[in-house]
Amino acid sequence: MSKPFDMELFLQGVLTGSHATRQRHIRQAKTMQAAIQKRFGRDNPWRWQLKHYRWFEQQYLKDRSASTRYYYQLTVRIIQSRSDKPARRT
After folding, report:
1. What are the CA-CA distances from residue 57 to residues 3, 64, 76 (Å)?
2. 20, 30, 72, 90: least surrounded by Cβ within 10 Å?
3. CA distance 72 to 75
4. Which structural domain range is residue 22 located in?
5. Residues with Cβ within 8 Å of residue 84, at least 6 apart in sequence
6. By C-alpha distance, which of 34, 59, 39 is closest to 7?
7. Domains in the chain: how many in total?
């Protein structure tokens, strides 16, 4: 049996800012991880592709406020900077 992916450990090296900001990014990353795992069966950011990020932004967050979507976009940038797979926006 494999251990679940530790999102907090994954982001630990790239998170900066206040404690509350770091905790928000971790919480949001775990929410993203759970949603993408449920929808696509991919449990860690090393396996995520651009379509996973887009699905999360366009479908999962579609009923959320603009400010919530903005904060999730910041978290996505942090995850992508950590995994060295920047998303190309069209």
Report:
1. 27, 10, 9
2. 90
3. 5
4. 15-83
5. none
6. 34
7. 1
